[in-house]
Design brief:
Strand content: under 5%
Shape: globular
Radius of gyration: 19 Å
Largest sheet: none
Number of strands: 0
CATH class: Mainly Alpha
Order of helices and strands: HHHHHH
CATH topology: Arp2/3 complex 21 kDa subunit ARPC3
Helix content: 55-70%
Oligomer: single chain
Number of helices: 6
Distance between the termini: 40 Å
CATH architecture: Orthogonal Bundle
Length: 182
């Protein structure tokens, strides 16, 4: 019986390409994030969240989940901490942030937008990370003494990232869907 190789063909859509491009931008920003020295371990600007906020506003929550999930997995592989405690900290923060965004996006758009979404997501992110750290890595309530520092960082970076996302949403033209002429 001769050995036959089968060719597997993946069919992609323009949506797949857009998600891949946006995830690549988020991954690039998370690599920049990792290179920025911070005074307190675990405090990062969260630049990749700017992309997640733009995706949420333009394309919806499911696409934001894809971009954020791809960022967490690919970023951890590129930075060399896949399946390490750092990976699970990042994953827990991203999951809590995405769950908060699922609620926040349903709030009245008259009062809530990219800046408030960013602040809520930043607080959810740090809450998820602190909870996981307390349950798994540092089984002592003394960990919560760091809460004021993490909260201040979440508020500051949440505002900054939200303002950047809001500005980019104003500046970037909305993409028209591609028409398939086949």
């Amino acid at each position: 019986m001769p050995d036959r190789q089968q060719l597997i063909t993946l069919h992609t859509t323009p949506d797949d390409h857009r998600i891949a491009q946006l995830a690549a931008a988020a991954i690039g920003l998370s690599l920049i994030d990792a290179a920025i020295p911070m005074p307190l371990p675990g405090v990062k600007p969260g630049l990749a969240n700017i992309v997640t906020l733009i995706v949420l506003a333009r394309y919806g929550w499911i696409e934001a989940v894809w971009v954020s999930g791809l960022r967490v997995f690919a970023g951890s592989l590129l930075l060399g901490y896949f399946l390490s405690p750092g990976f699970f900290m990042s994953l827990s923060g991203a999951l809590c942030s995405l769950l908060m965004l699922a609620v926040a996006v349903r709030l009245p758009h008259r009062y809530f937008g990219p800046v408030s979404w960013s602040i809520l997501a930043a607080f959810a992110h740090i809450s998820g990370q602190l909870l996981l750290a307390r349950l798994w890595l540092v089984p002592h309530n003394g960990l919560f003494l760091l809460l004021p520092f993490f909260s201040a960082a979440a508020l500051a970076f949440g505002i900054i990232n939200g303002l950047i996302a809001a500005r980019l949403l104003e500046e970037l033209p909305a993409q028209q869907p591609e028409i398939d002429h086949a």
